[in-house]
């Protein structure tokens, strides 16, 4: 190995922990119980500057630029609960979670979707680490405009304004949403294999009123009743959103964080992620403590899979 290669490896090793550690430190400094919410524009600018320095290597990921070419098959051991192999799961990687913020990653195969959902009272910073991701996001129209139907089977809907509808491609993929702006309700669709680094502050917690709710969006004309569009806007800029159950085809599996170790202050109490649509208020739940690793159950939407189910290829 030549001297330049050795220097390159040394510099990479030096840079990686610096970037991720600095991000963690900035989160600890910014997201505290006494801090203003949402964070100031100066704080957000610091996050943007720091996230711009972080790519796949800084968090222990490979740039999965090639499509998965494994043959067709089935997930799951039970003949009654098998899923087409091409319906590959999204991988969730926990980096850190405490009572003030969550740092995590989502790794998407092509065409994978995280359906439309909200982030009540939360600020979320997202960075596309590699690949391309389509983001569609809404904010509620205020004051609330609600249509209630007395017909059985017709949903109650609320009017929302389209905030984002675009493809974000790495490395220029940092964005932020706020409790009432920036596209607080969003859905992700992977255009290519891609990964997203997320910071959620504060984290989902049903006891604190931060439950993850899923929605279906309907065109404005579906429930307009001939009303004029709010603010003389365009019809395509609005949609009616209806609450739906956690989608049964939302498949996720846990992945291990392989990036640089984060040095936490001794006073830091690290929470094990335990999001569940019914129990904890989040989109999914990994039961990491109640059972041994080999028998561990993972909950995705309304489905339960064993550790063995998740990794049969």
Automatic annotation (TrEMBL):
Gene3D superfamilies assigned to the protein according to its UniProt record, in alphabetical order: Jelly Rolls
Pfam family membership, one: PCO_ADO
EC numbers, comma separated: 1.13.11.20
Top EC group: oxidoreductase
InterPro entries in the cross-refs: PCO/ADO (IPR012864), RmlC-like_jellyroll (IPR014710), RmlC_Cupin_sf (IPR011051)
Keywords carried by this UniProt record: Iron, Metal-binding, Oxidoreductase
Name the record gives this protein: cysteine dioxygenase
């Amino acid at each position: 190995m030549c001297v330049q290669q050795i220097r390159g490896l040394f510099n990479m090793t030096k840079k990686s922990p610096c970037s991720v550690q600095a991000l963690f430190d900035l989160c600890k400094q910014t997201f505290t119980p006494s801090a203003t919410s949402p964070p100031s524009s100066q704080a957000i600018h610091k996050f943007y500057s720091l996230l711009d320095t972080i790519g796949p290597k800084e968090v222990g990921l490979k740039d999965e630029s090639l499509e998965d070419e494994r043959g067709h098959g089935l997930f799951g051991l039970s003949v009654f609960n098998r899923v087409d192999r091409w319906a590959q799961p999204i991988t969730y990687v926990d980096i850190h979670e405490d009572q003030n913020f969550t740092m995590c990653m989502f790794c998407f195969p092509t065409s994978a979707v995280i359906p439309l959902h909200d982030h009540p009272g939360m600020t979320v910073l997202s960075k596309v680490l590699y690949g391309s991701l389509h983001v569609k996001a809404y904010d509620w129209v205020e004051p609330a405009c609600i249509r209630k139907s007395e017909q059985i089977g017709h949903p109650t809907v609320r009017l929302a304004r389209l905030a984002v509808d675009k493809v974000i491609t790495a490395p220029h993929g940092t964005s932020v949403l706020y409790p009432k702006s920036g596209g607080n309700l969003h859905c992700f669709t992977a255009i290519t294999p891609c990964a997203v680094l997320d910071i959620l502050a504060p984290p989902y917690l049903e006891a604190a009123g931060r439950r993850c709710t899923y929605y279906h969006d309907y065109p404005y004309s579906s429930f307009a009743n001939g009303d004029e569009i709010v603010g003389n806007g365009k019809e395509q800029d609005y949609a009616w959103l209806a609450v739906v159950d956690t989608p049964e085809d939302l498949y996720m599996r846990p992945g291990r964080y392989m990036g640089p170790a984060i040095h936490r202050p001794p006073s830091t109490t690290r929470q094990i992620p335990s999001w569940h649509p019914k129990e904890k208020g989040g989109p999914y739940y990994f039961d990491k403590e109640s059972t041994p690793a080999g028998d561990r159950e993972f909950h995705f939407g309304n489905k339960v899979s064993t550790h063995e189910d998740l990794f049969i290829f």
